[in-house]
Amino acid sequence: MSEYYVRSTGGSDGNTGLTFAQGWSTLAYAITNSSSGDILYICSTEVSPFSLTSGLSISSPRECYGCNLTDGSQYNGTGKAYIIANYSIGGSVGLVTTTTNNNTLWQDFSFNANSTVPYVFDLNTDSHVYNYEFRNCEFKNGSLGGVYLSAADTLNVRHYGVSFFNCSMHGNLWGIAIQSLSGYRIPVLLNNCSVYDNYHNINITSPVTLNVVNSRIFRASSYGIYCSSTYSYLSMYGSVVALNGGYGVRLGATSFVAAEIFNCIIAHNGTYGISKPSPAALWASASHNCFYDNTSGNLDSNVNSGVLPGYGNVTTDPLFESIVSGSEDFSLQSTSPCLNAGYGYEGGK
Known about the structure:
This protein has two helices and 31 strands. By secondary structure, it is mainly β. It has a domain at 81-318: Single-stranded right-handed beta-helix, Pectin lyase-like (Pectate Lyase C-like), CATH 2.160.20.10.
């Protein structure tokens, strides 16, 4: 395993890349001249981003860390390295595209497709993708999607997954698009993520196990979460689905869609809080949640006959700190009925 530096300014592809002072200057050169398992320290700022004139393609595992341009030290959650598209292309390609990837980490990056590239990050593999992790990353301005997940090899995708920690997806057609997966449910985790200001925030048309934990799904023009795939499973815990123009959660497949929703707030959505097209579609449980001010109702009649399932649900104003567009703060006011009301609360600290 080797470690290499690449800098948006002050580097040269004629350097060794082995130190910050000897950093390379282009990402394409860094990808080509590093190997599977290597570490890349990618150094840029918002003022001095990597401005790409073509997409990046990565076909083997790397650990990639966003670093500052002063001394090459890692941001470690305090900032991001910026990568932006400076070209236009059609079709279904990404600013960054991975093929046959596994055991890969991206930490502290802002990926900006600049509304000129279809997908910001394209995990569109012909064989498998697993143990793929993003930490403190931003995916924005894809003309189609922020993150596109697709895989063809059913033998490999079923046991592994893709994880997002402290990430955001915004300004895209779809914040996350999970499509063209064959046969098995790939696990996808969103933990402390914000998906907002997309057309559909999360659009699922292939089997998936989606776990949404301590995350915020808000301000979609249409649906907060849309799942039209059979054999899918949605688990939500401690999350907010709010202020979406259409459904908060739409289980669009007619059968075999299971959902478990606990300790969540589903509020201020433009139609139903939760909807599905047929009573035959499988429904699991929803307890200790808050449902409030969903324009057409909290549940449509196909969801448990329109009656809130489970127990311990709250139906009064959750009292967010702010629902003003652009200044959303989903922290709860001190008088919120949702405080200390969730499943598992036992008092104390």
